[in-house]
Every structure is written in C-alpha cells, then in structure tokens.
Amino acid sequence: MKEQSQKESIAERTRTYIDAHPSIKDCISKDLINYSSLARQIMKDLGIKNEEAVMIACRRYAVKIAKSDHERDILKILANSSLEVRTKICIVTAKNDWTVLHRLESVFQRLINEKAIMQVIQGARAITVIADEKLKNDVVNAVGRDNILKVRVDLVEITVKSPERIVETSGVFAYLASNLAENNVNVVETASCYTDTIFIVNEADMIYAYSILTKLIESAEAVETMEEQ
Questions:
Q1: What residues contact 82, with CB distance under 8 A and at least 6 apart?
Q2: Among positive and negative, which fits the CA dihedral 193, 195, 196, 197?
Q3: Is the dihedral of CA 17, 188, 160, 106 positive or negative?
Q4: C-alpha to C-alpha distance for 81 and 118, rounded to whole angstroms
Q5: Pairwise CA distance, residues 216 & 79, whole Å
Q6: Of these four, 16, 30, 101, 199, which has the most CB atoms within 10 Å of its CB?
C-alpha cells in the first residue's frame, strides 16, 4: 500500500509539473517529447529518484492529453477573431474603498450619455480604471487625489474580439498572454469582457504587440484553411 501510494504521489507531482510548463505539455500533445530526457529533468527539478515511475506517469498523462487537442480549439477561436486598437489610454489606480466606487458614479453617468468607454476592475486592494486619456482629470477629481495610488498615461489598448464560443473555450487568454510574454512585451494591464480579451501595453510596444497578435491570428487562419481543404 505504501509503495502504491508513493507511485500515485509521483504520478500526481509529474502531472502537476507538466501542467506548470505549457511548452512541455504542448510538445507532449504533438508527440515531440523524448520521455527519457523529460523524466530525468522532472527527477532533477522535483528531487524524485524513481525514474521508472516518472516515465510511466509521463506516458500515461500523454495519452490523456492526446485525447483532447486543446490547442486546436484555441486556434479555431483565433481564426475567427479580429483586433481593435485604441490609443491614448490612461490607467488610474485607486484605493479599494466603497466611496471611490460611489464617486465614480457621476463619471459613469456622463460616459453613458456620451457613449464613451471606461473599464473598472475591482481587486482585493485596489480599483483600476481604464479610460481615454481625456477622461483622466475627470476620473482623478471624482475619485479624489487622496485615494489615488498611481496614474499611468501613454498607453494603448489592444482588444482581441472573438466569437461567442470563446466563453466556453479555456486557454485562449493564456495562449495570447504567453506569446506576448515570450516576445518580451510588457503587458501593463489585462481585462476580459465577454468575447473581448483586452491587453494594455505601453505606446512604445504597440506596433510590436499588434504584429505578434496579428501573426497568431493569421497562423490560426492558415491552419483552419488547410484543415478545410
């Protein structure tokens, strides 16, 4: 029983390790992994000595991963997505206090009448307001300078607009964000609203970030076209 429990523990730790490394998981799903090398790396990183147990765990998890081509689902979403860019964006970060939300009510009312856009994200310690730069003073004055933690300007909002089924497809946000991170694009803020996935970047990174996301969509379109032929 003890030996079986130990093997189960190794299997669980192995699966957790693979899940924490998307690049490895992706290669496993495409059958591009040398399992001996992977097992030795997992043993080294996790301090496990039973190579056979790690190898078995890797192969069993590979079978499970192969049954669902998750990346294909993500690519289908991106193949039918488009990009929208808004420049001159600012971010106002304020204390998380009910009075701040109450004070923002007047700004919201005016924005609704003017059909302008402003996003508010409430976290555990702060409230983040993403808006057009021309609204910066309005937001700061409404919130009160004593409640302001930080104000950032010269930002750009890049929105990936996807079909409705993105709501039921996990991993799209992670796929986009990881590609931006791998290319050293600093994402200042992110948000997700129904079918919109929003990335806020510095103005200096706008063209590079846009080109990366464009290439991802174009690649997804190419894959879908090949599958239809």
A1: 160, 161, 217
A2: positive
A3: positive
A4: 22
A5: 9
A6: 199
Q: How many CB atoms lie within 10 A of CB 199?
A: 23
- Please give the model's pTM, rounded to 2 decimal places: 0.74
Q: What proportion of the chain, given as a percentage, has pLDDT over 70?
A: 91
- Residues 129-138 have a mean pLDDT of 90
Q: Which residues pair with 152 in a beta bridge?
A: 91
pLDDT tens profile 75-102: 999 999 999 999 999 999 999 988 898 8
Q: Yes or no: say if 149 and 138 are a contact pair by the CB < 8 Å rule.
A: no
Q: List, in sequence order, the alpha helices (H) in the chain.
A: 2-19, 22-29, 35-46, 51-67, 70-79, 98-114, 136-143, 172-182, 206-228
**Nearest CA to 180 among 202, 196, 161, 164?**
202
Q: Are 91 and 129 in contact (CB under 8 A)?
A: yes
Q: How far apart are CA 116 and CA 137, in angstroms?
A: 15
Q: Which residues contact 30 (CB under 8 A, 6 or more apart)?
A: none
Q: Dmax of the chain from CA atoms?
A: 69
Q: Write out the two tokens for 138.
A: 């309005």
Residues 6+ apart with CB under 8 A from 59: 35
